[in-house]
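Here is one chain, start to finish.
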Amino acid sequence: MLRKALGRRSIVGAALSAPLFGSAGFSGAGWAQAAWPAKPIRIVVPFNPGGAIDALVRVIADGLTTRLGQQVLVDPKPGANTIVVAEIVARAPPDGYTFLITTNSTHTNNPSLYAKLPFDPDKDLIPVSLVSLGTILVLVKADAPFSDLRGMAAWVKGLGRPATYGSWGIGSSAHLYGLMFEKSLGGQYTHVPYRGDVPALQDVANGTLDITWASPTSAKPQIAAGRVKPLAVAGAKRSASMPELGTFAEQLVAGFDLSLFVAAYAPAGTPADIVGRLQREIKAVISQPEVAEKMIAQGQTPVGSTPAELAAVLARETPIWADLIKQSGAKVE
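Its structure:
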């Protein structure tokens, strides 16, 4: 169902078939570029410090600090499925000193999940650049009596109670993936929302939670310590950071080829010269082999795009996620 909806125009196909990192799409001329930046820049992130997206943004911020000659600060503010942070940026002065780096949930999920949002992501935020495609793992306790999705599905059906699964918030992509698991695999599942994937991983490791979703960045320490084990990876392709893991579709669950993506945005009204400059600098940073290597190790595939290309991705992907949310029945009051 979902695979058919995505077809050849999925985010993975669209992003990776284009030239890596794209071109700027802006002339770069004008007063804004000449004057900017004159003071530190803040990138607000809607996830916990030390989590996957926070770690990714800090790598990029370090590179931007060097290139721009001004400190680029990362300001993590988790909670509310990215809404609180996105509203902060949407209401910030459009002067080029506050930006948002977030997952696709802000634009593709939340408008369908919530009856009302305190801002309009399509009008109050403007695209800067697609940054990366993300890897999401499904994990269980290390001593679980199965090592793949087929075994997990059989275990859940025979559990005698609903299996608990963690996510990084109500309506998050992990929450939706869990709903898809229940519909695709059978058995009963109970969603347990957390403020990030790290605390959910800790509860899987100590046995108070059955299943969770997490990034390689968050999961690898627990995997290395022998406390949790990964079963499979979401997305159309295996992750470069953990190529030994099969995808959901390879193992059992057809249609799990919808990848998550990370992108940068600015408050509406931010001058085009500033947006263009930041896009080019992000491109330059993630094009560096050492940065790309770090991103891949964190489960992120560097992509990059122009603002127009990111806008096209959002226009294409939002209806797909909206349909998935409708089919899942997920709603947040």
